[in-house]
Structures are given as C-alpha cells and as structure tokens.
Sequence to fold (186 residues):
Amino acid sequence: MLLSLLDLDYETVPINMADMAHKAPEFVALNPLGQVPVLDDDGDIIRDSQAILVYLAAKYGAGGWLPADDPSALGHVSEWLSFSANEMLHGCAVSRALVLFNREGDLEGARSLARRALSVLDSHLAGRDWLVGGSPTVADIANYVYAALVHQGGINPHEFAHVSAWLGRVEALDGYIAMAALPAPN
Fold:
C-alpha cells in the first residue's frame, strides 16, 4: 500500500503460502525466517512489514511518512509500529487467520485481544485524524491493514466510531489502492 501511496513503480511476486513456498530454500535465502513480506529494492533485501515501511518512508517519502527530524514524533511512530506488531497482530491478525485458514487456536481470546486493541486505537483517535501529528505516517499504514481486515476474523471495525472514521481517511488518501477484502465492509 505504501508503495502505491508513494507513487512508486513496483512488481509484486505472489507467494503460495498454502504450498509452503515461503519455506522453500530460494525464499528462505531472502528471509531466513521464511515469512512474508520481503522487499527487494535493487538488491537491498528488507524483511518484516514495519521495517519495510520505515525503509520506504526514509528512502522515498521525502520526510512525509516518517518524521525523522522530530525525535518525539518519531518515538510515537515507533510506539504505534510496535503496537501494530504486537497488539494488532495478536488480536486482529490472529483472529483473522484462525477464521480464514481454519487454524486451531483460541478464537474468542484472539477476538478479545482484537477488541481491546481496537478500543485503544479508538480512544487515541478521538479528536485527531492520524495516529501521530497532523498527517499520515507509516504508523497509520501499519495499523490500518490489521484494523481494516479484522472483519475477516468476525469483528466489525466500524463498531469503533473513531477507528471507522480513520479507516475512511486512509482510504481517501491519494494513491490508496483497495486490496483483497479491503476496504472493510461497513
């Protein structure tokens, strides 16, 4: 999504995770963890969603997506990237994966964590448009995807008024592209 928002040309390479292509030797050579996503930017290999967002913003974002010149704002962006990789992942993404891929696990526990994460997000967004500062950052993009896809785990993100409005703001950004199951149905 950030590649599109930055108006960069890119090529996507589908990875068939059902066939375990992410565990194949040629993929593990790119990412020893055998996880997606992986970015190859002219031979510079970056793995992990948050790391890729930071890299793209720092290299191509002209200061707009990553407030590198403001230590306080950068610290808050980092907080929200951690929130995405922890609370949003363990709640929103896990509940989605349990439903979509018929995985074993504690679905109600994951949904409870998702609701708690969305509540924190909703409270934070009360009275503000973006997670940090007056314009979108990589923190918004990292958290958007989990919040917008949580409907596939059986939770309606639009039940959280501030989250719902924020989803709409992200979706209205110039360069936003809908992906499979996005935007979340209202």
